[in-house]
Design goal:
alpha/beta, Rossmann fold, two-stranded antiparallel sheet, about 35% helix
Length: about 210
């Protein structure tokens, strides 16, 4: 293998162990395998948002990221692809997940290949990936893989049906799509300082001061 890529996994599971982390790991493993089949090595870094919850809250209140949160953001912005997985609460992504997105620079994910996944108790919430998560990442100008993966409690160990396939099949299809996007990703065209001050910022006069 002569090529290598960096994949960052963002898991917003609250319990330990969690089905959210389990799905995140399955998606990461499948993506690594797909890349390896094409001669591309992948380094995977997993970020558990539950471990950063206090730092994320403090960042929202103060505008400054603690070292551990800053390191996680830098890992994400310097990656070649990312996997985001959240539990679904009240028909949408979790508050912790959205809070992490809110502390990112608006351009931090621009051009980044992304695979979206979610977990929930019932199949009824599966469309949250399309009406809540996909629009969010489209707004952030990420390159979202066509297939999203939702895992309800009943999906674990199920083979699915003829139209949707089982969870392993959906994971493999989504991983193949992300791997294809990651292979073509040129990190040099999008890596930026996630903590750079906006153009025109003056510590004395504020934004746009001359």
């Amino acid at each position: 293998m002569t090529e290598s890529r960096k994949i960052v996994v963002i898991s917003a599971g609250l319990s330990q162990p969690s089905s959210t982390r389990l799905l995140a790991d399955r998606l990461a493993q499948a993506t690594v395998k797909r890349l390896a089949d094409d001669g591309v090595a992948a380094e995977v870094q997993v970020i558990e948002l539950r471990d950063l919850a206090q730092d994320i809250t403090n960042n929202l209140l103060t505008g400054f990221a603690a070292p551990k949160l800053a390191a996680a953001i830098e890992q994400l912005t310097a990656s070649d692809g990312a996997i985001f997985v959240t539990p679904i609460f009240t028909t949408s992504y979790s508050g912790l997940f959205k809070s992490f997105i809110d502390v990112l620079d608006p351009d931090a994910l621009s051009g980044l290949p992304v695979l979206l996944g979610a977990t929930g108790g019932t199949e009824r919430h599966s469309l949250a990936l399309e009406y809540a998560m996909r629009p969010l990442f489209s707004y952030l100008h990420a390159v979202v893989a066509p297939t999203t993966v939702y895992a309800a409690s009943s999906d674990w160990g199920s083979t699915g049906d003829a139209s949707t396939g089982g969870l392993p099949e959906r994971i493999d299809r989504a991983a193949g799509e992300l791997a294809a996007l990651v292979r073509e990703h040129d990190r040099s065209t999008r890596v930026r300082d996630p903590f750079a001050l906006p153009t025109g910022f003056s510590p004395v006069g504020g934004f746009g001061a001359q």
